[in-house]
Amino acid sequence: MWDGSGRVAVVGWGLSEITRDGGRHLGALTLDACRAALDDCGLSAPDIDGLATYPDQPFRGAARTDGVDVVSVDFVLEHLKLADSVAWYAQVSQGMVASAVCEAINALLAGACRYALVWRAMRKPAGQYGAWRSDRASGADQFGAPYGLTSVIQTHAVAYRRYLHRYRADPDAMAELTTNSRRNAAMNPHAIFRDRPLTRHDYLDAPMIADPLRIFDCDVPVQGCAALVLTTAERASTLRHEPAYVLAHAQQTLHRQPIPGPVYTLMDHMECGAGTAGLLWQRSGRGATDVDVAQLYDGFSPSTYYWLEAAGLCPEGDASRFVQDGRIALTGELPVNTFGGSLSEGRLHGMGHLIEAARQVTGNAGPRQVPDAAVALALDGSPMLRNSGLLLGRSPS
Amino acid sequence: MTGEATVVPVPDELTAPFWTAARGHRLELQRCSECSRINHPPQVLCGWCSSDRLGFAEVDGGGRIASYTSALTRAREGPPAAYTILVVELEEQPGVLLVSRVAGPRPDWVRIGQPVWPWFEPLDGTDIVLPQFRPADAQG
């Protein structure tokens, strides 16, 4: 077991407004989210001496202007006037934002900082998100794009097609997962689709984008920022609300297959996911049966299936059946994506999952609160080749 | 692929032999002289044994459809057209995946496990020939 288990906690969080079009620059939204996170825990900017982010925009053709397309450590340090206080920082490009949180946890345990602020700023430019715009393909793309493999949804579609085949799963079963997330989003004031109910009929009637994936199997690109604050368990007890103790953190940054192929395979997802989940169990001394509520990445809906199985929350091949019959509803045996997920809250690239996990174990999920939620799992990534996650607890041990 | 603006591959130092062979209607993949395994896409070091003794050799092109997905092109002119991407796994070395494309509504032969064989499609207006796959029992 990891000797850091329970010694660090998430103590505050905040989100900016989340929009689909126009609105303010990403840098302004980031400052909003960071200030909201500080208010949430009762700290002020000069208290922050550690900063971490995952700045890269995960879509093809993303630009890099600071404050517009990405929000760097430099930007936050300058605009929150932290130059005199910040002693540690990390700008992470591996894994997901949970990897930046992992860095902050390690820094806090090492005594490199006392209070760490971590944010994920997501850019939504005008026009089609991540569209292929070139008439030439170089590098790895040359074996895919000339054949029409020009969108990441297709990569996910072929893995999911494989999944359906391998486990004789019913593609219509995904309606349960997507409508459940939409119902939860109705109780989430930040969710972009909080006022847009989704029925089973709506889901099944929607057009295929890259079959077997439909429009409602894709998360909605948004512009916004989500931030959280971490500190050590000793300091946490002096702050505004109950801490969400980090029981374990993990990331998977290793290639599982010898060659990065033109598409990620089903086994890429499953093996990478199992690796990260396994580390969480080993480090925390817990297991899948200890999880009261699970926030599982859903950039595309099948990722939630892969995580359910990779984390051992249901048997291998069984996720399409597991999500039926209210099992993953707020009142069910294992509530999943209680905030609506990326599918219905908006594409915050995993930060929404981490924050909701912290809300649940600290009793701050409002109408979405799962009674007696003591242990929450948050897993970011497709799982694909690089992913990361946290296991949070109401108490440190 | 007439009537559509197709994306043209840009050969580079690592991949040029693949495209040269394709122009001659041969499927050649990178093979490691040390461990004899195929690396595709071509690598700087063998993904299996990390050797840099890598060359290209013609492979037995037989494969099976591992997966597929159908979508609509976002054509620059005219209405969107249906097409299907195939992911083909090489029989000679499981795990080696090649992508292929079938224009139009998805044919019945597209299913997981279908045996396929290469054919070579010139890209109009370029000197590129694209290796493609079709059912092993098709004429050609």
List the topology elements:
The complex is a heterodimer of chains A (397) and B (140).
Chain A: E1 8-15, H1 26-41, E2 50-53, H2 73-79, E3 88-91, H3 97-110, E4 115-122, E5 136-137, H4 152-166, H5 174-185, H6 200-205, E6 208-210, E7 213-214, E8 224-232, H7 233-236, E9 244-252, H8 266-284, E10 293-296, H9 302-310, H10 319-322, H11 341-345, H12 351-361, E11 375-380, E12 387-393
Parallel strand pairs in A: 2-3, 2-4, 10-11
Antiparallel strand pairs in A: 1-8, 1-9, 4-8, 6-7, 9-12, 11-12
Chain B: E1 8-9, H1 16-23, E2 28-32, E3 38-39, E4 54-58, E5 63-72, E6 82-90, E7 97-103, E8 115-122, E9 129-135
Antiparallel strand pairs in B: 2-3, 2-4, 5-6, 5-8, 6-7, 8-9
Spatial separation of the terminal alpha carbons of chain A = 12 Å
Over all CA atoms, what is the radius of gyration of chain B? 16 Å
Secondary structure tally: strands of chain B: 9
Largest interface (CB within 8 Å) is between:
A-B, 40 and 38 residues
Sheet-strand content of chain B, in percent, reads 35-45%
Please outline the major beta sheet of chain A.
9 strands, mixed
Which class of secondary structure composition applies to the elements of chain A? alpha/beta
Oligomeric state of this protein: heterodimer
The level of helicity of chain B is under 10%
Quickly give the structural class of chain B: mainly beta
User: How many β-strand runs of chain A?
Assistant: 12
Portion of residues in beta strands of chain A equals 15-25%
- The outline of chain B comes out as globular
The residue fraction in helices of chain A comes out at 25-40%
Radius of gyration of chain A: 20 Å
First-to-last CA distance of chain B: 18 Å
Low-pLDDT segments of chain B:
none
Which labels suit this protein?
heterodimer; A: 397 residues; alpha/beta; 9-stranded mixed β-sheet; B: 140 residues; mainly beta; 1 helix; globular
